[in-house]
Amino acid sequence: MGRTNLRRIWILAAAIGFGACGPDEGPIVERLPGGGTRVENPESGVWGETPRWTLSEVARFGGYDAPSPELQFGSIVGFEVDNRGRVILLDRAAREVRVFHETGPVRTVGGEGAGPGEFLNPFGIDLDPRGRLWVADAQTGRYTVFDSAGVQVSTVPRELAGWGMPWGGGFGADGELYEPSYDSDPSRGESRAFIRYDVQGGLRATDSIPLPFHIPEFYRVELPDNYRLFRVPFTPRLRWVFDGSGGFWFGLTDTYRLIHRTFRGDTLMIVERSFDPDPVRSGDIEEALEALDLPEGLRPGIDRSRIPSTKPVFSTFSVDRLGYLWVFRADAGGSSVVGDIFDPGGIFLGTLALELSLFPPPVITAERVYAIVSDDLGAQQLVIYRLSRSAG
């Protein structure tokens, strides 16, 4: 038996405490040369067809017919949950931060303007390790920092001009701020890197951490006096989330393969799952090209050979406060999505249906799922679910 095979460990039912299954049916764990692990999961999870976890609604706020202005949302583009269970929402349309508890609204912070504690184009929020709220504003070029009581404590100039939603930046467990840097040169594709900032006494860039993918994702369409970029339909997207303990997960949506890495570049885990993507059919291509809203007369000249033959495998993913990985699949439509759940060891448990929107992504704690949904008229709502994790 070769050295590679010796490093492979078949995960038997007796070793992980699940129902009986032969070695040909279970996950495989392989030790990586650097000390991390790679987990190969079959298509079926150890739960089988019946989910072991359940969700029950605890509270719901917002919607078209919400009874008061503080319960009406314009455009929620990001939210966080603090250690008291309070939900902190960024409403970009209202230029406000709304704070909720399960029992109802707590306070409103900010407002439209360029003065202290005000926003013009807020697009992202995060909590630092001290529990302070940072609000990133593209138009004023700054972060506004609030304490846990909603009082502004400082304003920090923002160095980067680029921005996106949902915001891919935030704080690591080391207390430093990580901002994604975007490069969308159509001749080279789209690439990403994190810029790490020391926030003690201001904002000082310390290094750049590249993400190891380079994806040609755009059509460049020349216009009389400029050009426009259009994303190539069905091309993979790079997704990432911070793990809350000093690293991050990332992966391309066309492959069921997620990588856990430290900010120093050490690979901690690779999680894979057998999954057959859906093919891209001619009708899908026509519908996608129509949705691009190309200038009149330019659609026939689009290079269709750049469109992949299969659809993305998943849409996005989250990591909950206990280290479980939730992968939200791309084949779900409407307000109901399918979440594939992996335990902290990378073992695929099973699936759970959820009513939520993937923009912004949900926040999952030990006992709660916080999500944004839309009512029948398209108005946003905040929904809080109780998450019951059964044994096994």
CATH class of the largest domain: Mainly Beta
Mean pLDDT: 88
What fraction of the residues are assigned to beta strands by DSSP? over 45%
Bulk shape = globular
| Main sheet specs | 7 strands, mixed
What fold name stands as the CATH topology of the largest domain? Neuraminidase
In spatial order, strands of the major sheet run 1-2-3-22-21-20-19
Low-pLDDT windows of residues: 1-24
Number of domains: 2
SS field, number of helical segments: 3
Supply database-style keywords.
single chain, about 400 residues, mainly beta, Neuraminidase, 2 domains, 7-stranded mixed β-sheet, 4-stranded antiparallel β-sheet, about 45% strand, globular, disordered N terminus
Topology record:
Blueprint: H1 3-7, E1 8-10, H2 13-16, E2 28-31, E3 37-41, E4 53-62, E5 76-81, E6 87-91, E7 96-101, E8 104-110, E9 122-127, E10 133-137, E11 142-146, E12 152-157, E13 170-171, E14 177-183, E15 190-198, E16 204-215, E17 218-222, E18 227-231, E19 238-242, E20 247-252, E21 257-262, E22 267-273, H3 282-291, E23 314-319, E24 325-329, E25 336-342, E26 348-355, E27 363-364, E28 368-374, E29 380-389
Parallel strand pairs: 3-22
Antiparallel strand pairs: 1-2, 2-3, 4-29, 5-6, 6-7, 7-8, 9-10, 10-11, 11-12, 13-14, 14-15, 15-16, 17-18, 19-20, 20-21, 21-22, 23-24, 24-25, 25-26, 27-28, 28-29
